[in-house]
Amino acid sequence: MVTPTPVVVSVADAHRHYETRAGAVRALDGVDLTVQKGEFMAIAGPSGSGKTTLLNLIGALDRPTSGRVQVNQKRVDEMSAAQRAELRRDAIGFVFQAYNLIPVLTVIENVEYVMLLQGRAADMRRKAATEVLEAVGLGDMLDRRPAELSGGQQQRVAVARAIAAGPALVLADEPTANLDTATGDALLDTMWTLNRERGTTFIFSTHDPKVMERATRLVRLRDGRIESDERR
Asked: I need a labelling partner for 183 at 20 to 30 A (CA). Which of 81, 148, 151, 231 fits?
């Protein structure tokens, strides 16, 4: 019997509405989405299509107005703010456009930081951080600070930090947006390798055609709805 691939994300009839001075905004309007372990998926669409809103719901940064959002078998829509913070800490890695590295910490200390918050032992933190930094090609830069790195190197540190604790899911918001073509390609190669070798699940929000080309699944949003869902 073939063992089914675990489901990491399940979104069912998710709506997210906002009230503004101009009236109600339907940022998401009935989205259904299931993501299995090990996917390398991109979410694309024009500005205002709902990409960031959907990523925020999956990342437990927000809750839907109605509908169900489940991450790592846990109902995000039923959680308190404290419970969502705990889920983000323990099960979700984030890669932001702005890197969000802590300037006073070294490279390895930045990568260890999430594991420190989780209460892991120092030797375990150091071992996991060293291994993942070597995997992203920064094994000789452990003691440097973010200001001593190029933009591409800082983004690789951000990727290492996102995956070092072994999260069920990594969310990357426009990870190549601030990088030149060669650096962006190298970063995608790094994430692709981590996906293939470690089985890390990646979901990207992107406008970058190269990210869309590399994704093994491309979900396009328009006006808060899924317009297409293509597996390669």
From this structure: 231
The verdict on residue 220 lying in a domain is yes
How far is it, in rounded angstroms, from Cα 194 to Cα 190? 6
- CA dist 224 to 78, 134, 163, Å? 22, 40, 29
97-117: per-residue pLDDT in tens?
Answer: 788 899 999 999 999 999 999
- Number of domains within the chain: 1
Q: Which CATH number fits the domain that encloses residue 41?
A: 3.40.50.300
pLDDT tens, residue by residue, 79-97:
999 999 999 999 999 998 7
Question: What pTM, to 2 d.p., does this model score?
Answer: 0.90
Asked whether residue 1 is domain-assigned, the answer is no
Contact 89, 117 (CB under 8 A): yes
**Residue 200 falls inside a structural domain:** yes
